[in-house]
Amino acid sequence: MNVIWFDYALPCICSFLACLGFTLVFNIHGVGKLICGVGGALGWLVYLLAGKTIFAAFLASAVIGLYSEIMARLRRCPVTGYLLVALLPLVPGGGIYYAMSYCVEGDIQRFLDTLLHTFGMAAALAVGAMLTASLFRAAYPYLRHPKGQG
To answer: What is this structure's pTM?
Structure first.
């Protein structure tokens, strides 16, 4: 029980709360705050379950992208706010900090390793969200009005 709490539930709750805080910056009101928080927690859960790798970041951003697209359609709101706020806990800010720290210290190998991993994480987040949005927007007209029911 402790393993589930400390390894999965508590980080997801923290991600939820972090996203709630960022809704103030993005001027998101009402139920949209909860939607962003749940999106952030869902993305973090997928990231943890998939193994905290670059591919896990891709999967998490794809899930967040799909969730944001669906919630935006249901609420008739722009998807950008939901997507950006829910992705924020996954942004590799620590990686950037440590890469710069290693650079200043002169540890070139650790600098390059950390920098490449950070770029990989950032690219995975961008590609996952962009790919999901593109596929959803291409499929949405067919999902909304199936052939023969038009």
So the answer is: 0.89
